[in-house]
Amino acid sequence: xxxxxxxxxxxxxxxxxxxxxxxxxxxxxxxxxxxxxxxxxxxxxxxxxxxxxxxxxxxxxxxxxxxxxxxxxxxxxxxxxxxxxxxxxxxxxxxxxxxxxxxxxxxxxxxxxxxxxxxxxxxxxxxxxxxxxxxxxxxxxxxxxxxxxxxxxxxxxxxxxxxxxxxxxxxxxxxxxxxxxxxxxxxxxxxxxxxxxxxxxxxxxxxxxxxxxxxxxxxxxxxxxxxxxxxxxxxxxxxxxxxxxxxxxxxxxxxxxxxxxxxxxxxxxxxxxxxxxxxxxxxxxxxxxxxxxxxxxxxxxxxxxxxxxxxxxxxxxxxxxxxxxxxxxxxxxxxxxxxxxxxxxxxxxxxxxxxxxxxxxxxxxxxxxxxxxxxxxxxxxxxxxxxxxxxxxxxxxxxxxxxxxxxxxxxxxxxxxxxxxxxxxxxxxxxxxxxxxxxxxxxxxxx
Length: 447
Ligand code: AMP
Known about the structure:
This protein has helices spanning 33-49, 63-69, 75-80, 99-108, 153-169, 184-199, 207-215, 228-233, 244-259, 290-294, 297-303, 314-317, 333-342, 362-377, 391-400, 411-416, 437-444; strands at 53-54, 60-62, 82-85, 91-94, 118-127, 139-148, 174-180, 264-266, 278-286, 306-310, 326-332, 355-359, 382-384, 405-409, 418-423, 429-433. The strands form 3 sheets. An 8-stranded mixed β-sheet has the order 1-5-6-11-10-9-7-8, with helices on both faces. A 5-stranded mixed β-sheet has the order 13-12-14-15-16, with helices on both faces. It is elongated, with a radius of gyration of 29 Å. The protein folds into 2 domains: 30-183 and 243-342, Bira Bifunctional Protein, Domain 2 (BirA Bifunctional Protein, domain 2, 2-Layer Sandwich), CATH 3.30.930.10; 355-444, Anticodon-binding domain (Rossmann fold, 3-Layer(aba) Sandwich). The longest helix is centred in the first third of the chain and has 17 residues, at 33-49. By secondary structure, it is of the alpha+beta class. Helix 1 packs antiparallel against helix 5 (153-169) and helix 5 (153-169) packs parallel to helix 9 (244-259). It is built from 17 helices and 16 strands.
């Protein structure tokens, strides 16, 4: 008896398996591209205007890079990294964030020898094995800015200003929240104070917060656990423990923001979980959903469009020159787009074209390939529907795309070496020499 497909190791089912994208990984379909293009174009422009240079970095790094920089005891390193051992037995991780990477690049490529600060920007995907929900994905995109090699508070302000202005230019209504967490030295005493404060309420804390109290007490301040929300209000505040330089620098940052008319709120609970931060830390929150969001701390943090801060110790920690200061920020692209949709930012969804090329019959279709290419290389935005046969359908498409002019090429025109130009508004048509059509249309379009 002949063997079944299953018996010879094939898939038994007649229907092939239908694959789906992985949980937390999203396809960004053509419909959304207008938003993505708008955000990326605006990001590129503002970063360039402020003299930041673009870098593109690999998605995979040695696991240790993130363990050392982001820090053990953080959610990212403890729970969220996509790590595996590669075929050459190296422990690697899909980057969960890019700051550590940029610092690695700065050190590896000797950027120390360039004029400081070295100002870099990136736009690319990050990977975190987080619990997926609205605005939180396992692959998401960030636009980031890093300025390495200057401790001037104006650099902190400049990065905040860029993030704020970019979001404004994208039509968003946002607020900057800001805090200073001082130097690691000044933080040490504060953390002792914080620990002794929360120890009184140890019993009331959730298991997660009990662990934080031991491992990373600063994180208690941005904890989303409901039990801690009231306790936080009376907790000692870090600004009262800042050393003089941190305090003066913080005041300067605020003055620069005032000068640049960037509105901000002081948020004493903002600590930004990662180990490498020092002094200025900030986040940017969209305004429209703030009231709803403020009721729910978890949603609030999920709502941040971006944030960043100073990381004066990181370069040294990763083997760079002692005492190299740095400041950076990252904005989440999906969150920005969600906010643009929520705040109903007007956006032109339709691709606008000047000319639409219509063809009738096989000979016209063939000839049309070169006519279309002539328009394209002349820089005239031209639509087409080579796959369609009916003139009516093609003219309807031309109308929908708001073409000013339609070109009609039929069997007869191909034989005569002509083409019809139709003014889409008046419906007036003229027959012209196909060799001159680009030039004639260019004049009609006023170019
Ligand atoms: P972070 O440095 O973790 O605060 O990330 C900076 C920004 O990236 C956040 O404010 C979000 O806009 C975005 N972001 C972080 N994690 C995710 C995620 N899992 N999904 C989507 N966006 C994220």
